Amino acid sequence: KMPATCKKLGQNLLLFEEQNQKDSVEIKLKNKSSQELDFQLDFSESQGVLIENSITANVETIEDLKSKGSQVISQTIPPNSTHKFAGIYLISESSCLKYSSNFQDSPGIPSGADSKKSETPTEIGTPSSADGPLGTEVPVPTPSYELRFFEKRVESSYTSISRFEGSQSLDLFFPPDYNSLFLGAENSEMEDPVRWQRPDEFMKGSYELYLDRIEPADINQGALGDCWFMSPIAVLAEKPELVKRLFVNKGVSEIGLYHVWFCKDGEWVRVTVDDYFPCLMGARTAFSKPNGNELWVMLLEKAYSKLHGSYKIIEGGLPHKGLRDLTGLPSKAHFFESDGTQSMIRDGSFWDLLKNYSDKGYLMTASVDKSTEEAKYKGLVTGHGYSLLRCAEAYGNKLLNIRNPWGHYEWEGAWCDHSRCWTSKMKEALNPNLDEDDGAFWISYEDFLKYFSTMSVAICEDFSEKRLKGVFKRNSSGASTEFYYEVEVKADTKVYVELFQEDTRIYGVNEWRKPTDMSINIFEKVGNGLCKLKTSMHACISELMEEVTLEAGKTYVIFPFSRGNEIEEPLYGGGGLHDDVLNPRLLFTLKDIFKRASKSMSEGLTQEEFQNLMSETQDQYDQSLAKQLMLGTEKMLFEEFAQFFKSSIQTQNVMNWLEKWGYGEFPWASTYRTYVLVLHGLSELQVKQFTPSEVFIEKFHEATQGMHRV
């Protein structure tokens, strides 16, 4: 059943077309007035349709109606009601449904009212419904990741809030303790005791950030169930430049601090970690294991763990999310049992799609979700993610090159490393690496579909990209959205539109900042009106993505919408501040506040952003300390913001600050939810942002009436 199409025929009359099946359309009318309406539909231009009159229940072909000399159906629509008018059945591929409307108020309407005829029904949201400006333009901030003085300022900040052991720094935001292993995780056990060690304690000789060259064989998953993250890292290793751009450091840090970038919840964020790693007895790392004396894989895993709260909290996930967090690119999953994928498998287009992804160099992973004895017998791990390195075809054989992030334990069926399927011709055509102890293997397309369940892909193109931040704010009627966006493109192009809230995997989000409901709504702007182009599902969810083709020369409107569900204080009690310790709950609350305040999505708060944030408290604060931390004209990094807050706990009413920042009974976010809108297109994107007026909101609700999929 497809969403209804809504057309406004008059001030109080709406027409809905609802396609129940491929060849069946139901027409309904909504009379919003207190008077009856006499209404007619003229089907004289239709061809090859059956028409069912909902009053008489007669079903006649349009040709029969024409032979009787009348192709018009007339009915009286009751006041304040929604009324089924007719059912339409398309009886052949050449069927054509066209109609015009004619309606007149029944006797008793105010004098002077005229009958109305609509040859072409008016689209919802055109200037006939409301007048006035849609909104006020607000300049779009330009993100800046300027790293001038960056490393030294972070190191200076860590000197103030961390302690040193000899010449090495210790990160007290993510210290070597129990919380860093298990905070927020369901599984808080390890089979063997863990102790934290630095590289020179478990590596023999000198070590490097990268040893020789970056390659998929560098990734060896340990005892942590994060294959959904490790398999995307292995795919990235096929393109070493994508790995290196994640690291601010170019080599080993003299004081043991490393800075890593992730694109989390739609914006690039820096995570700083020290080089303490969880280890087991015998100088073995507990989780990811180095391939030689190099650090980069272990540092990525540790930084990603810190970003979410702990190592164990990142167990179990969907690989396309790992791909997106590592690349910032639009990413999606194909579930093999879904109707859409099954249809593509049957008509052969799914292989073409995979081959196209591979030929274009897109980053891909695959997962085995089906638990079968046959899969285990043939060397596959159920509930496990793999890197999908290549799709190739030769001599009628469709094959996929896949790698287990464990670095061992491979497929033992047809086309495995020692399979007789590898003839000299096939080896010459594909030049496979048939090393039996590297975790990589080949598998036929048929076996891939039989044993694997999902494949994920990051769309790697030379995109024009826009990242924009706003808030959903709770109000008496539900919630308001801070901005809507007008978009134009230089040339016709497909655009990936993504909308993000905070990931529920992050520590504390599900308890204290649950995602509110939201949807992506895309319109074509016609005059001062809105014509619906596409609307996403509407749900309490952390992320949404829609693909839409935009045409040059047109203006489009994108509106993130929320009703404000879940933006409230929970029923159970809250905590408080008893000392100046930045405990995990407070730390992640401050990160959320910092994220909302950083409108430009740059590395740190500008002076204006910081001052705007503090003005919300309507309270005094130590301006000299703030200026000292910001070094006069520089931005305030998160570590410095945390230090400022910590230093203020003893002298300021910071509980009042939290309340004014929208956190009510600490630490629940009871007023706001931050969102990030991300656009990727192959043509240059021009985006303006506006604060929506009441006229815009009215037009939006008219344009989406009956169309939200909830």
UniProtKB/TrEMBL annotation:
One of its GO terms (molecular function) is calcium-dependent cysteine-type endopeptidase activity. The keyword Protease applies. The active site is at C227, H384, N404. The keyword Zinc does not apply. One of its GO terms (biological process) is proteolysis. Residues 107-137 are annotated as: Disordered. Keywords: Hydrolase, Protease, Thiol protease. Residues 168-457 form the Calpain catalytic domain. Belongs to the peptidase C2 family. PROSITE patterns: CALPAIN_CAT (PS50203). This is Calpain catalytic domain-containing protein. InterPro entries: Calpain_cysteine_protease, Papain-like_cys_pep_sf, Peptidase_C2_calpain_cat. It holds the Pfam family Peptidase_C2. Gene3D superfamilies: Cysteine proteinases. It comes from Fabrea salina.
